Structure formats: C-alpha cells, structure tokens
Amino acid sequence: FRRVLFRSRTTTKFYDTSSLLLRAGNLFENNGEFIYISSITLNELENIKTASNKDFSVKYAARKVLHDLKNHVDNYDVVVFKESMLTPMLAADLTITSDLKILATAYSLIQQIPNLTLVTNDFAFYHIAKLFFDKNIEMLNDEEYDGYTGYKEVSLTDEEMADFYSTYQYNNSFDLLTNQYLIIKNSSGEIVDRLCWTGADHRPLNYKEFKSTMFGNVKPKSNDIYQALYADSLSNNQITLVKGPAGSGKTYLALAYLISLLEHGTIDKIIIFCNTVATKNSAKLGYYPGTRDEKLLDSQIGNLLSSKFGDKMMVEDMIEKGKLLLLPMSDIRGYDTSGLHCGVYISEAQNTDISLMKLALQRIGENAICIIDGDYKTQVDEIDFAGANNGLKRASKVFRGTKPYGEIELQKIHRSIIAEIAEAM
Fold first, then answer.
1. How far is 131 from 124, CA to CA, in rounded Å?
2. 24 with 124: CB under 8 angstroms?
C-alpha cells in the first residue's frame, strides 16, 4: 500500500463495485478524497463493460468509471487481492464470492488506515460488512431524486399557529433555505398562508399577473399553489429552476413571464439555450437541411415555441426582429449575456450533464435573468445525462439556498385528463 502513510491526513474511502457504478462520471468530485479499490473490482468493471447479459446503462457506467480512473491516477490506488485476506471471512463460515473478496481487501486495508470508510450501494454487502466493521460503513443511496421541492408544507393546530405567528417574521423555525417557501395549512388541511424565507425574515408572496399582448393576462391556473410559488420566484429571483411533469405549466408560465418583460421593455431579448437531443427510444430522423435557425425550428424546441406562441411564423418574426435568439448549447462557449438585458431560458434541462449545465450558467451576466426547466425524474433522453452526472440535479444542489436562486417543483397537471392519467404510465 504505497500511499497509505502519505494519505493519512486525507479523507480516505474504499469503494466497492456497486458504489463506483453509481458515482460514474462524478467519482472524483470531492477534491479532498482519496479512493481505494480492490483489484477484484477492477476486473469486474472490465468484464461488465463488454458483458452481453448486462443492461446498456450498467455497461456505460462501467466505461465511465474506468475513464474516471484513467484521468485521475493520482487520486486512487488499487489494492491487489490475496487469498490470505480471506482468513477472517472464512472463520465466519461465509461463501466465497467476488463481493467477499472485495470485502476482505477492504478489511485488510483498514488495519493500516483506521479512519478508512467503506462505501457500498449493495444492501446485502452492507450487512455482511457490518460483521467486520464496527463503524465507518457508508451506504451510498441512489440520488436520482433527493426530494427537494423548493418549499415545505406544514399543518398546524390552532395553538401551533398562534405560537408560530407570535415570532414568525424573523424566526426560521422550519429551517428553510434562503428563498425556500413555506405552505401553511390548518388542522383541516386548508392552506391559510404562503411565505418565503429571505434569509433574514419571512415575506408574503409578491407577484402580479403576467400581462402581454401575446399571452393576455396569465396567472396561476385553478388556484394552483405550486404555480403561485413559481410565479413568485420568477418575479423575485434572478434564477428560477422549475421541475415537474409534462403539462404542469413549466414552459407556459416561463414564456408568458419572459414575453411580458419583453413587451414592457424590462428585457430587450429572449435567449433560449437548447440541447436538441432526440426523445429517448425514438427513431432518429438524421440530417435536417437549412440554416441553424431552420434546423432548430424543425426540432423539439421549434415545436415547443410554435405551440406556445401560436405558430411558426410568429417565432420566425421574433427571430428576424432580434427579439428571440435560439442558441444551441454546442455554440454557447465564449458567449456572454452581460449588458444584453436579456432573459435566458434553458429548456429541457434534464438533457444536460454537469459540465454542460455549468458552461450554460457561466454565460449568465449580472443584468440577465435565467429560467431553467426540466424533469429529471422521468424525461432524461440520453444515458450521458442520467444519474449523478445530471446537470439539472447538480444545478439544484449547488444553487439552492443562495441569494439569486429559487426552485419550485410543480405537482398538478393541467393540460388534460389524458395527460394526467398518462403520468402514471
């Protein structure tokens, strides 16, 4: 173990195969962490990436892990498994498997690194490991969705309500993040108040209808409390990230707000960052003829804008007048919105990885606003954007609780009863 003494002051973790696959593409995110793996795991990764009986996503994850290891040779060590390492496991009368050999490797290493943490995503492995490790076992959960919605809903009795409002203005009793919302219900489940924690105090919701010639007067539909929070975040935060199922109003409210600002002269231009990937499991039609704008208008983003703005000619007219810019993410490197007084809309943001989302958000200048929309729970269309490498999910984790940022997860589907039923598929 050539780096044990050298790394004694660094956070050290031993990853089994399952946890490496879960962290694929994001393995060396924590700069202060040094990683150990077993030679058994390395062999398993090599076998998984070409196995005919493995799911494509698993094989892809194995390739991503091996790529991570290749590019970070100074941040990990491979510990070679030896049969003698199995001695403690054999005494417990356990069947020899690849997992047991990985566990034996970790157990031999912890004798030299007492603060080593064993990381796994395998429930059975975790419980077998507990036979040998008194502590320092981390169960790495799948983080496809961490439950953050941008608000908390609480039900209070009359007594709890009186107690809350006696000190509520400057008292963050529900541990809200900055710009996180609080929905207060009475004991009957009726909504009695909506508040936002500013980081210093609670404020009531503060937004008006989004008025424009194109959309008319737009407000939350059918008293949808979640759309009301969304409208408030749009009106008060420089960046709003909105999640939710198809038909919940993510795009409609975003575009209605941006068009309202455009018509009233608050912004001069709407810029749409788009990553036009084919819908998952659909047939790809191949090459589209025409200019960049013509190709984009024939793609998913063109269909979206045409349906919201009325028709394709309206979209083309806005582009021609310089009021609308469609910018594929393949072309945004070096772009700067500073001084443009614009609204940036990042559509279908679940179809980005972390590096692409980072690049997009670094384009946002001080006098620009930004709306990010997507749904990474159900609509990720390429394996590159899935799991821990998802840009929408990472943006949420990095920005939540910061001063310019608000986030809302919409819950209700308003498009049609068919769309509502289809969400259960």
1. 12
2. no
